[in-house]
Specification:
With 452 residues, the protein is of the alpha/beta class. It folds into 2 domains: 2-229 and 426-449, Aldehyde Dehydrogenase, Chain A, domain 1; 234-415, Aldehyde Dehydrogenase, Chain A, domain 2. It has helices at 25-41, 44-60, 62-73, 77-94, 132-145, 160-171, 186-195, 208-219, 243-248, 250-253, 275-288, 307-318, 349-352, 368-376, 391-400, and strands spanning 2-7, 12-18, 105-106, 111-119, 122-126, 149-153, 179-181, 201-205, 224-228, 234-237, 267-271, 322-325, 339-341, 359-365, 383-387, 405-408, 427-428, 441-449. The strands form 4 sheets. Strands 12-13-14-11-10-15-16 form a 7-stranded mixed β-sheet, sandwiched between helices. Strands 7-6-5-8-9-17 form a 6-stranded mixed β-sheet, with helices on both faces. Helix 3 crosses helix 4 (77-94). The structure holds nicotinamide-adenine-dinucleotide.
Length: 452
């Protein structure tokens, strides 16, 4: 069976790709189990070398991969180049893991106690369509580095770079079957992967609704899960902040990837005395956004991923008060303009739910504690920003916010070397950083008697 992959900027078919039926998963997982045993038997340095070779393989094809990602996702080409470079850097970073993933010795009476970090076996990796290669690398690199095999199910809308990554892995020397890519729907193939008895862990990035379904099914087998889910992240802008940067930065902070970013700062709380000057600056940001062909070097924002998603995003703005709106190209493509909602009440749907489009709500506040309480009044807790020149206040607010990935005077929440993940219903577990491979291991404890 095959499925068509659509290019969101043109609405044309980009490719026909082969799909995997749920019934074929047994064969894929069996091959993964066999490959994992071989992989784990290799010297740590050999496993590290293979991961470094994947990084080099990605870099060797960087221009082609970036173009493919840009066309499949509708992501501006400059962003896609960054995504490809980031994926290579991720494999290179975790190439160091196999030789460093040590255990500990623990002082005990009567002998020696030691711990080992051992692979889980086969890991099911399920990724969304918004940053396909980036998120795949965040999971696959540490999982392989910890000695596991991976069966990767990319989002059906964006399988292109996942398929290429599977090939690059093989060419880099991974044993056949160690990294498999299976294309298909979440409701059938995704569920089958979650429920497969020989898949030891599922690492999902997706919506909170899908996270609940995956978590429930995994729980029946006490299967390990890592869940990186949705967000409704705040930015809190105090009157003493650099308002130019706070407003200009929203070009990336909420309109980046057309707002299809789990960390999008879609609720911007602005101290009331700074509201007018902030809105003036934001007007310039919105008017200046270049929305258009993802392959044009000048483009800052591309289309949404699909017609259905555009309809869903439009529903949030239909009854709301639109204070500002940018422009979009005519003709084919799932375009949606950068949009600012104001005034907006905290209880309005657009202020509560993850829109996953280029739509930001402006919410004035008067006091610091009020801003923290309102920012926290959400089931989500992924990211957030604090804009102020007062260092003590910045740290006070950062400690008060219920979110996993915060930035002060910045909208960047993600760095390869630092942990990333959500509080509350934004997820379970952390990705990136030096500790990420541990989430793909079991901790084994061994006591050896030295008596008699
Ligand atoms: P989605 O939840 O619809 O799908 C994610 C993946 O899960 C896809 O591969 C899909 O096929 C699969 N899937 C769907 N239903 C499934 C099921 N019942 N069982 C197993 N697999 C299933 O998400 P999406 O629309 O592709 O992506 C957008 C969502 O992802 C947003 O909510 C966004 O916030 C979230 N996201 C989170 C992060 C993060 O790091 N926290 C990063 C990016 C995106």
């Amino acid at each position: 069976m095959t499925q068509a992959v659509i290019e969101p900027a043109t609405e044309q078919v980009l490719a026909e790709v082969g799909t995997t039926a749920a019934a074929e998963l047994d064969r894929v997982v069996d091959a993964a189990r066999a490959a994992q045993r071989h992989w784990w038997s290799l010297a740590p340095s050999a496993r590290g070398a293979a991961l470094a070779a994947i990084a080099a393989g990605i870099e060797a094809e960087a221009a082609t991969l970036a173009r493919l990602e840009a066309r499949n996702v509708g992501m501006p080409i400059g962003d896609a180049r960054g995504a490809v470079a980031g994926a290579a850097a991720t494999f290179r970073y975790y190439a160091a893991t196999p030789e460093r993933l040590g255990g500990t010795t623990i002082p005990v009476a009567g002998g020696v106690d030691m711990t080992f970090r051992e692979p889980l076996g086969v890991v099911g990796v399920i990724t969304p369509w918004n940053f396909p290669l980036t998120i795949a690398s965040w999971k696959i690199a540490p999982a392989l580095a910890a000695g596991n095999a991976v069966v990767h199910k990319p989002a059906a809308l964006t399988p292109m770079t996942a398929i290429e990554l599977g090939r690059i892995g093989l060419e880099a020397g991974l044993p056949e079957g160690l990294l498999s890519v299976v294309v298909g729907s979440g409701s059938e193939l995704g569920r089958a992967l979650v429920e497969h008895p020989d898949v030891a862990k599922v690492s999902l990035t997706g919506s909170t609704a899908v996270g609940v379904d995956v978590g429930e099914r995994a729980a029946r087998q006490i299967k390990r899960v890592s869940l990186e889910l949705g967000g409704k992240s705040p930015s809190i802008v105090f009157a003493d902040a650099d308002l130019d940067q706070a407003a200009a930065g929203l070009a990336g902070g909420v309109f980046g990837n057309a707002g299809q970013d789990c960390c999008a700062r879609s609720r911007v709380f602005v101290e009331r005395v700074a509201l007018e000057p902030f809105l003036e600056r934001l007007e310039r940001t919105v008017a200046g956004m270049r929305v258009g062909d993802p392959l044009d070097e000048e483009t800052e924002m591309g289309p949404l991923i699909s017609a259905g998603h555009r309809t869903a995003v439009a529903e949030y703005t239909a009854g709301a008060q639109i204070a500002m709106q940018g422009s979009v190209p005519d003709g084919p493509g799932y375009w949606f303009p950068p949009t600012v909602l104001h005034p907006l009440a905290d209880g309005d749907r657009a202020a509560r739910e993850e829109i996953f489009g280029p739509v930001v709500g402006i919410l004035p506040f008067d006091r610091e504690e009020e801003a923290i309480a309102r920012a926290n009044a959400t089931p989500y807790g992924l990211a957030g920003s604090i804009w102020t020149r007062d260092g003590a206040r910045a740290l006070r607010v950062a400690r008060g916010l219920e979110a996993g990935a915060l930035a002060i005077n910045s909208y960047t929440s993600v760095r390869l070397g630092t942990p990333f993940g959500g509080f509350k219903q934004s997820g379970i577990g952390r990705e990136l950083g030096a500790d990420a491979p541990e989430a793909y291991t079991e901790l084994k404890n061994v006591f050896m008697s030295t008596e008699g």
